[in-house]
Specification:
single chain; alpha/beta; Glutaredoxin; Glutathione S-transferase Yfyf (Class Pi), Chain A, domain 2; 2 domains; ten-stranded mixed sheet; 12 helices; globular; GST_C; Glutathione S-transferase family protein; GST_Omega/HSP26; Glutathione_S-Trfase_N
Length: 315
């Protein structure tokens, strides 16, 4: 099997859920560390400029966003599944959690460690990623609201566990558990578990659930350089089995399209449409650094438009 390569950095909560997914699947992987603040020229060569982390690479197939990474891992190794109770609830809960908790979690985080964040990091997140100032002083006025929101959401987790048992969607771990774990993991790892547990009134059921998720671990991995990852793409041909011609808006294979996140880090990636259905889209990109790569995106949370239409709207 072609090596699984994860482009990530240690404190990225979205990367943490993929590291846990790889551990849960028992899949060995290669670790390519990237900077928390761009530029990331070698990763950009693989993705076409996609701004966010993590990115998963298998040969010349590149996966952007954790939802499509989960989907790729399910194709690669169906068991144990990330969707033991079906995909719908787990995906909907994950999508909501990622968006609803991100800003309040950051607001609480910077209250604890904001003075230690590099100026370059703060500048990047304001100007290129989130579009708002996440410095400690800027976030402070809304801190009570952020705590209120996270406390409410934590009680919802407690209610799900009371109804379903050890995990959020039933008796077995799902993608929803890995997703809902990551915001709390970020806070507990950086601010102190005792302090966060008290501030957000995390119940014993929720903290025990956190422990079960953390115990999954990251599996077996070894380091790889960005240069080696580029060489792996260049030496391979796209090989993922996903194939579909069912774009819900009638885009046809071969059309040039742009794919853009619809929440933050709104950098458009342009390529030639290869495959699409209601859940996933794949575009081909060619470069001297990588050869031909297929870049995979989820449909939820992304806008896919004909490249000509994008150009007209920008004019």
């Amino acid at each position: 099997m072609t090596e699984i390569i994860l482009h990530h950095y240690d404190l990225s909560p979205f990367s943490e859920k993929i590291r846990l997914a790889l551990g849960f699947k028992g899949l060995p992987w290669k670790s390519v560390k990237v900077d928390a603040v761009p530029p990331r020229p070698m990763l950009d060569a693989l993705t076409g400029g996609y701004r966010r982390v993590p990115v998963l690479q298998i040969g010349a197939d590149v996966y952007c966003d954790s939802e499509v990474i989960f989907r790729a891992l399910e194709r690669l190794q169906p068991a144990p599944t990330l969707y033991p109770s079906g995909e719908g609830v787990a995906k909907a809960l994950s999508h909501w959690w990622d968006r609803a908790t991100w800003k309040p979690a950051i607001g609480i985080l910077v209250d604890y460690i904001g003075e230690h964040l590099p100026e370059a990091f703060l500048k990047d997140r304001k100007e290129s990623y989130l579009g708002y100032d996440i410095s400690k002083d800027a976030m402070a006025p809304m801190l009570p609201a952020y705590v209120q929101q996270m406390t409410a959401f934590a009680e919802w987790l407690d209610s799900m566990l009371a109804e379903n048992g050890d995990y959020l969607t039933g008796g077995k771990l799902s993608a929803a558990d890995l997703t809902c774990h990551h915001s709390l993991w970020l806070l507990r790892a950086n601010c102190g578990a005792e302090a966060i547990d008290a501030q957000l009134r995390l119940s014993p059921a929720v903290t025990a659930w956190m422990g079960r998720i953390a115990a999954v671990g990251h599996g077996q991995f070894s380091d790889m350089t960005p240069e080696e990852a580029l060489a792996a793409a260049r030496a391979a041909e796209p090989a993922d089995s996903f194939a579909a011609d069912a774009d819900p808006t009638g885009l046809n294979p071969g059309a040039r399209v742009t794919v853009t996140p619809n929440d933050n880090a709104r950098v458009a990636v342009e390529g030639r449409l290869v495959a699409a259905d209601a859940q996933e889209i794949v575009i081909a990109r060619d470069s001297a650094e990588t050869g031909t790569v297929h870049v995979h995106f989820p449909r939820a949370g992304f806008e896919v438009l004909a490249a000509a239409a994008t150009a007209r709207s920008a004019a």
